[in-house]
Amino acid sequence: MAPQNSIQFGRTPVLVSDDFKDVYRKWRARELTAVEAMREAGVKKTSFYKLVKALEGETVNTL
Questions:
Q1: Max CA-CA distance within the chain?
Q2: What residue ranges in 2-60 does DSSP mark as E strands?
Q3: Dist CA 32 CA 5 (whole Å)
Q4: 42 vs 20: CA distance, rounded Å
Q5: Using an 8 Å Cβ cutoff, are 22 and 55 in contact?
Q6: 42 φ/ψ angles, rounded to the nearest 5 degrees
Q7: pLDDT in tens, 3-61
Q8: Residue 46 and residue 43: Cα distance in Å, rounded?
Q9: Which of 25, 29, 32, 45 is the most core-located residue (most Cβ within 10 A)?
């Protein structure tokens, strides 16, 4: 019944935004520490590393 009514269960997924991509580039260039990057992106530690993994996986798949 729930899928038919477009009801979503669980947490809303965190998506890789353009702002996060900018923070990621700064973090990889060592302009920011991981903690500073998390604060700037406005995400918690677990979400930050999930987004990093998603972004790096996306980069590998596009090569």
A1: 49
A2: none
A3: 44
A4: 9
A5: no
A6: 75, 35
A7: 677 777 887 777 889 999 999 999 999 999 999 999 999 999 999 999 999 999 876 55
A8: 8
A9: 32
